[in-house]
Amino acid sequence: MKLLSSAKMATGLAKAQLTLLLAFTVPSVSADWQLNMREGVTEISRSVYSLHMIIFWVCVVIAIVVFGVMLWSVVYHRKSRGAKAENFHENVYVEIAWTVIPIIILIGMAVPATATLKKMYDSSESDLDIQITGYQWKWRYQYLESGVDFFSSLATPIEQIQGKSEKTENYLLEVDNPLVIPLGKKVRFLITANDVIHSWWVPDFAVKKDAIPGFINESWVRAEKTGIYRGQCAELCGKDHGFMPIVVEVKSEADYQIWIKNQQLAQVEKAKSAEKRWTLDELMVAGKEIYTKNCAACHQASGEGVPGAFPALKGSPIVQGDPAAHIDIVLNGKAGTAMQAFSDQLSATELAAVITYERNAWGDSLGDIISPSQIAKLKQ
Amino acid sequence: MTTDTEQSIAADMQHDAKDHQADHHHGPAKGITRWLFTTNHKDIGTMYLWFSLAMFMTGGCMALLVRMELFQPGLQLMQPDFFNQMTTMHGLIMVFGAVMPAFVGLANWMIPMMIGAPDMALPRLNNWSFWILPFAFSMMLMTLLMEGGAPNFGWTFYAPLSTTFAPPSVTFFIFAVHMMGISSIMGAINVIVTILNMRPKGMIMMKLPLFVWTWLITAFLLILVMPVLAGVVTMMLMDIHFDTSFFNAAGGGDPVLFQHVFWFFGHPEVYIMILPAFGIVSEIIPTFARKKLFGYSSMVYATSSIAFLSFIVWAHHMFTVGIPLAGELFFMYATMLIAVPTGVKVFNWVATMFKGSMTFETPMLFAVAFVVLFSIGGFSGLMLAIAPADFQYHDTYFVVAHFHYVLVPGSVFSIMAAAYYWLPKWTGNYYNEKMGKLHFWLSFVGINITFFPMHFVGLAGMPRRVPDYALQFADFNAVSSVGAFLFGFSQLLFIYNVVSCIRNKNPATAEVWEDAKGLEWTIPSPAPYHTFTTPPKID
User: Fold this and answer.
1) What does the pLDDT read at residue A2?
2) A226 DSSP assignment
3) Residue A26: predicted pLDDT
4) What is the average pLDDT across B395-417?
5) B476 and A336 in contact by Cβ < 8 A?
6) How many CB pairs under 8 A join A and B?
7) Angle at Cα B114 formed by Cα B108 and Cα B116, nearest 5°?
8) Which residue among the candidates B88, B129, B282, B533 is catalytic per the annotation?
9) Active-site residue B260, yes or no?
10) Which one, of A373, A356, A376, A374, lies nearest residue A285 by Cα?
11) Euclidean distance between CA atoms A320 and A315, whole angstroms
């Protein structure tokens, strides 16, 4: 893959063909020729895999028989071999046979499929409940029992996507904050969405459920092996549908408990930071980072937006006008548009930083500071 | 009806027939008015077919842009939003602009000639059905130039991505869909009225050629589901402009309702795109096997069963939306059942070939490839029907592979087969057989290189509708892209073959193919402007 990614492929077919040649001749490190579904690490995923293999072999056998007869006819019953056409064109018994036999095969298939499906639908008696919410274009995980609550978004740097730096092993399949679940426990997912329909999919768990605004879908997993499992959003959800991966880390029970504790502590720390006095420079630095992660996908790094789709912030009357209106739209979103309410998504400090950043970046330096404590008050 | 009125109608018909004979020397009008004002089924059929070819090329170019971007990981040529516009427009144009109009064009040309009727029953309606289309598609293509870009929410346009979160051009898309729907409904009415009322004496229903039968059933599907599509886009329009909340959860609406309504249209729609193909293949295989179609009546019943089943399987597109277990099971069983009548059709085609005396001219090559490759699409369809496994397949490239196998080497190959099969009848000239075969083999190889690897990346976990992908999918994607270019550029040969068939004189006989059966082969090649102005005798 080294050659593929380092070659600066901007345009041009000629160059593309050259790269293809290289791709075929140079053994690549991470690219592989995986052909089949993976078995996964749960009881469900294994029975899904076996259903997949059974139906696959059923198809193969039928194909061999049908295409075999056809190929035989194509070879032997051709005019150039002097074949004379026979007259038969109807046979009730044959018709009945090739109606009934497939029905029997299908019933044989439907029985195990039904059993697996029933198991998949039984999300009762869970040890742990996690609410998963799809946002354009990130996931939010809320642990209902312990109150841990965070967002998880793509960690692959934009330079790799644009081909300006080398693509690393987990390109597009890495996130800043993975979902962490304990080994061997039945974890129930309550899946919903905030804006459009997304779909939460981790192939190793055979869990794929649509995240639909206004609905809560259920699914569950009992992982049997610690490790990191990667998946992606599976339902077209707009521009960055391809850039909202899912990473799940399965930890042993003890490690999981430690992790939960740390998360809870960090959340308290975060809330405290609003009480500190922040300078403009500090807010600008923090704000830029938050802007890049949460806002730039639509409003662009330059603040110029995308005409007709996402409004520009640079020179916008809201950004340059009364801070109250600006704060309001960031905290509460704008109904009927893609503008989300960030009040629950970001901490008071983060909100203050990003609003301050928007008001002072791109040459429109208003010089005003939105203080975290001011936002904290509004959030209460 | 009394015998009296029957007699008087018969007398009228004879009278009409005489009148028509009197204007028999009337050819087509001169210049552009021939095409603008024509009510002739052959002219309208020709326009439909050229229109479809133009759209096939347009949609194909979009597919090639998509494949270019997917040639390797990373964003090379376009931004994700434009990529989404390309996949969306590609799908819409291929479904509504290429495949459906091609079948309507074939219906226009062939149904009157195959049942022995002088024209379609409603010729002015026929003219209008066609002429709506160029306007509908101009409007749809214009959205590419609008602020915010063209529709970017996939050809299935799931709400609320296509309502609250859509670019402003969605309104134009909605009106374009309305126009296409009107065109399809009128075309379907015309087909039904023609088949039910314009058959000469002796042409009983169970003597109708299978192409006519499959189209009759398709036309009923169209009339039943196109209004549903119109309904769903109208609800979108209301949500976008008139503050309703059909699909907006925040207003008490239901985003899943959209999918139910859409797929209630959408599943019959996919059969609308394959049933006429079944008909075409059922005409071509017997001709080149020199043997009567095996199981004619079971073919008719199988087609009808497929059409019926198409109305009770829609939610298999929605296995992951969270429908209750009982619903999931019902739709799984019903979907699996479709394999039965479809299997019957495939077995009948193979039985027709078995112990025949086959030759492999271009139409036959396409037809045989259809049977094999459509079956592969059928197999992956059966796999997708298994709901638990569908949780792994759904919305991955496995699905992309599946529906392209049934649509490209399925529907599109059948259309190509039909074009080569009937071109000599339409133009009066044989096409160049060598070039036809070259076109077939390049297409056949190209299509498999393009779509077969998609099964693998899908199973390995690549979601569909993504402009960029993880590194482990890189190799197969590069292969797919190469195949796509091979297939795409091979279609230039098709255009060349059609144009040279029209221009080069290589006169075809009336029968065209050795011992071909059917009324269309009893009239001279090229078919005169007016045919069967007196009803043929059917024995």
Assistant:
1) 38
2) -
3) 40
4) 97
5) no
6) 330
7) 100
8) B282
9) no
10) A356
11) 7
Q: Do A121 and B328 touch (CB under 8 A)?
A: yes
pLDDT confidence of residue A268: 86
Q: What is the Cα–Cα distance from A379 to B142, expressed in whole angstroms?
A: 45
Kindly list the residues from chain A whose CB atom is less than 8 angstroms away from the CB atom of residue B329: 114, 117
Q: Which chain A residues in 12-31 lie under 8 Å from chain B, judged by CB atoms?
A: 13, 16, 19-20, 23, 28, 30-31
Distance, CA of B111 to CA of B418 (rounded, Å): 13
pTM of the model: 0.89
d(CA A292, CA B396): 29
Of B46, B58, B184, B427, which residue is the catalytic one? Answer: B184
Model ipTM value: 0.90
Is B183 one of the annotated active-site residues of the chain? Answer: yes
Which residues lie below 8 Å from residue A378, measured CB to CB, with a gap of 6+? A327, A331
- H or E element that contains B390: helix B387-393
Q: What is the pLDDT of residues B340-390, one digit of tens each?
A: 999 999 999 999 999 999 999 999 999 999 999 999 999 999 999 999 999
The pLDDT value recorded for residue B192 is 97
- Report the residue from B77, B154, B359 with minimal CB separation from A78: B359
Interface of A with B in 28-87 (CB under 8 A): 28, 30-38, 47-48, 51-52, 55-56, 59, 62-63, 66-67, 69-70, 72-74, 77-80, 83-87
State how far the Cα of B181 lies from the Cα of B133, in Å rounded to an integer: 10
Q: What percent of chain A has pLDDT over 70?
A: 90
Contacts of B33 (CB under 8 A, 6+ apart): none
Q: How far apart are CA B422 and CA B425, in angstroms?
A: 5
Q: Is B43 a catalytic residue?
A: no
Helix boundaries (H) for B167-313: 170-197, 210-241, 255-272, 275-289, 296-309
Q: Which residues contact A316 (CB under 8 A, 6 or more apart)?
A: none
**Of B323, B333, B461, B350, which is closest to residue B386 (Cα–Cα)?**
B333
Residue among A16, A114, A237 minimizing CB distance to B161: A237
B155 versus A375: the higher-pLDDT residue is B155
pLDDT band at B26 (very low <50, low <70, confident <90, very high): low
* Torsion sign, CA atoms A111, A113, A119, A122: negative
Query: Average pLDDT in the A284-293 region?
Result: 87
- Catalytic site includes residue B269: yes
- Which amino acid is it at B467? P
Residue type for A257, please?
Q
| Packed helices B433-460 and B413-427: angle between N→C axes, nearest 10 degrees | 160
Q: Structure tokens of A65?
A: 């028989």
Q: Which residue is closest to A334 within chain B, CA to CA? A: B164
Answer whether residue B18 shows pLDDT above 50: no
At A50-85, the pLDDT tens digits run 999 999 999 999 999 999 999 999 999 999 998 898
State chain A's mean pLDDT as an integer.
87
Cis before B167? omega within 30: no
Question: Residue type for B157, please?
Answer: F
How far is residue B328 from each of residues A123, A218, B323, measured CA to CA in Å?
16, 14, 6
Note if B411 is an active site residue. no
Using DSSP, state whether A247 is helix, strand or coil.
strand
Residues 182-201 of chain A whose Cβ lies under 8 A from any Cβ of chain B:
195-197, 199, 201
Chain B positions in Cβ-Cβ contact with residue A213 (cut-off 8 Å): 160, 249-250, 255
Q: How many beta carbons lie within 10 A of that of residue A65, not counting itself? A: 11
Neighbour count for residue A170 (Cβ, 10 Å): 17
Is the pLDDT score of A19 beyond 70?
no
> What are B334's two structure tokens?
């019903």
- Of the candidates A96, A135, A182, which has an alpha carbon nearest to the alpha carbon of residue A346? A135
- B-contacting residues in A 251-290 (Cβ below 8 Å): none
Kindly state the tokens that stand for B260. Answer: 């139910």
Chain B residue numbers with beta carbons less than 8 Å from the beta carbon of A113 are: 332, 386-389
8 A C-beta contact, residue A219 and residue A149: no
